[in-house]
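Loading example: each entry is read as two labelled lines plus one structure line.
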Amino acid sequence: MLITGIRSKPVYAPLQVDLQGRYHLMVGHGVGATPLLRLLSDFRTTQPDALTRTRVWYVADAQVSQGSADALRATNIAELRSFTGVDVLLADLTAALDQALMGTRLYVSGPESFMGLVMRIAQQFNLAPDEVRAEECGTMARRVHCIHCRATIENVRTNIVECSCGRWIVVRDHYSRRLAAYMGVMVDAEAPGERPEIKEVFL
Amino acid sequence: MSQSHADTIPVRVVAVEEVTPQIKHFTLQSLAGELPAFSGGSHIIVVMRGAQRVYRNPYSLMSSPNELENYQISVLRVDPSRGGSAFMHEQVRVGTELEIAHPVNLFGLAKLARKHLLLAGGIGITPFLAQLHDLRMSEVPYELHYATRSPQHGAYCQLISRLEPQRSRLYHDSNRHFIDIDGLLSQQPLGTHVYVCGPAGMITRVLDSARTLGWPDSHVHYERFAAPPTGAAFDVRLQKSGIDLHVLPDQSLLEAIEAAGVDAPYLCRGGVCGFCRAEVLSVDGELVHNDHFLSNDEKASGKSIMPCVSRARCSTLVLNL
């Protein structure tokens, strides 16, 4: 059981370089390093001087191969930063966007929940769709907002999950950009205890 | 939709002020109840019934959107005038009755902007005067850069200096003091929206600079109020209405269609909104596209024309109207 067919679910497209941009800030998480390497390689062939105006920030996790990390370090860009966690990167991203100038392009790649958190910050800075590009890669595990107690549950892989408030909630495709989370609603409100089978669906 | 302009509001001119030798400021009061609410950046179309022709010219509302007792507009006398601005300067006085179309805003402030950068050239200050009323009430930072030919030509320099001593800067060509467009656009914080209203050259420079500096189109706003370009006369057949008409050299295609009694749609009369778009069925010559709405591909395809500013170099143009 999963409530689907709701059009608020964000759709992301493969990353491409934006040659109109003046400054480029790329943020990635985990396997998101791979699309960023592809972008840097595209710049090298189309507009090499853009690399001197490019910053890459990424959160290294177990999924980032040593090869990707080495490859990132080998590129000649203005700045490369490796973060130990998403929260630190997001805090620094907010500070960086506050200082950034018009002409900046933001590129995002990583698991879906990371994308949502970055996109929410981009929205706070009134970045237009043509200033942000995002490519999804890695786990599809969702951030879920319990509409009853308003807690956020991270890394949900199943169609139904137990919230910290004790309710069992079903994950909908209804996505909130403001909360950067999918909506979860109580699954057995009408018939307490009657719950469909729990399955791993967001892999 | 074509009701929007057929439905005009009768107004009376209650004050006329000569702001500079070329600019007159008119205060209009409704003869039919309260005037409609509007937002800063809106324009109205003033319908002027001249002896030979009817003129419909767009003018920005410059009064406060919070005060609907009257509307205020400023009219620059264009030389040579196609008729509209000369009519306003010579024929209109206190007591004159005119008709206006409802306000339309094609130059509104972006509600989510983190900063507004306003660039005005000459008479292009007028939409900003109304927007400043809204901006002063908001928390969002803004700055106004206002360029005029000389202090004497700057119709509203004193008003701006008084209203916005901190957030405005004045420039006069006569002092060789120009807006440093590249310098300004290269130093704006992320989330800024830029707005430009002024002479065509100024608008082009701002658009070019913004594009070079990586501004996305969604953050760049401009408003042109150029008179429809003139050209050779040509004939037009309106296929659906079964009407044949003639477009004079200094008349726009839209004006000729209206003069033939056809209630054609329009909003901006400046080639930007796309509302008057007409389908071209055939032309025995070439279309002269003067609008900023159709894409280059659409212009090349020759299937559409914007009658408010565009015309044809031909003997007969057939439209699906």
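Residues 120 and 245 of chain B are 39 Å apart (CA to CA).
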